[in-house]
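Subject: Sanity check before I submit

Could someone independently write out the structure tokens for this chain? I want to compare against mine line by line before I put it in a report. The sequence has 66 residues.
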Amino acid sequence: MKNHNKLNYTFLVIILIIATNYLLLPIFNINSAALLPHTVHVATTYILPWIFLYWFIRLVKAIESK
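---
Independent answer below. Compare away.
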């Protein structure tokens, strides 16, 4: 139960940081409507393939060890 409370706290902090950044972006003349598609593009192009590769390598190693 203790880990569950810590997880809830972590998610609340992350949501608070994202909301604060979203509200402060117009102050720095950053278009917040264009930020989400750009972030999704960067994540799907550069970050997600590495995550997939990591888990695929773990799967192959687990299958080979059997």
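---
OP: Matches mine. For the report I'm noting this point. The mean pLDDT is 90.
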